[in-house]
Amino acid sequence: VAVVIFLAGVVALARADRVLLGYGPGVYGIAYPEFWTTFEKEWFAQELRMNEHVHNDLMELSIDAGFLAGGLYLTLLVLGMGYGLTMAFGAEDRRKRTLGYAMAAFFAAFFIDGLFGFNLRVPVSASLFFLVLGMFEGIYAADAPAAPSFSWRKGAYAAAAFLMVLCAVGHTRVFAAEVEMQAGVNANSLHDYAAAEARFKRGQRIAPWDDAFPRRLGQVYMVTMRFDRAIQSLDESIALNRYYILTYLSLAQARMYVAQQALLEQPRDTAKALARLDAATSDLDALLRICPMFPAAHEMYGRIASIEALAVSDLHDPSRVDEAKAYWARAAEHLT
Asked: Most buried of 17, 109, 169, 251, CB within 10 angstroms?
């Protein structure tokens, strides 16, 4: 069953042209709306919920880092079970035989449960897995024949240690950004928008790849009526994650507010306002390509079309009657 699921993941990756390197670690939650089924689109539209994990370790590893990484993890689990059974059947010490059965059962449990969950994404179970893996390797190697010494072994150990330190530094940076995010969210909930803005900006400097920081900044700018800056930040967020649906909605709303302000100031000069509103509808078109049945997008689309229709109708220009009618028809299409 595991091999079949793994091969299905490989086929899916091959169709997506990412069979060797995958989409990148942790990118599943960002990339998978492109491949939503109708059920997943309807689920998001109704519940505003989406999966962040595949609920299958083998498949998610293949999506993250290609089928070689998924195959490597599958091999690791099979070797763990195999060496456990080898110890159980071959050791003379009863305690080691018992330990061998326990190790085989442990890796079999990760193997089976990993077909329906994401143990490697949960800190507790992932830590337990690697601790037990290291312990078992040490116990098993103690009885194995001494391996020949190689001149490059110390260099390999040094390189591995350097890589571990590099990973620790990188994850410390991620953690520091998450602290800033949480502090900013707390400040925002208390309506301390200056503090929230400062926290989100600091977090964005620490983790410039995280689309949540410019999105949160855009929301702060909208609450504080700085719509041009909101548009800039939300555009940055979409550039980092073009599948986060709610960003498109906020961006369209910001453009709509700027256009309404322009119409209030110069009601006879509709060109710039209509250009803003057309940009907002383009944002909503991008959203609806991802989730065509998202109701908030249709409601926003109808509001924008109504504003465009009123702006053109208020000109009382006979040559633009058909244009106004088209806007009213679009509003009716999305609001009814």
From this structure: 251
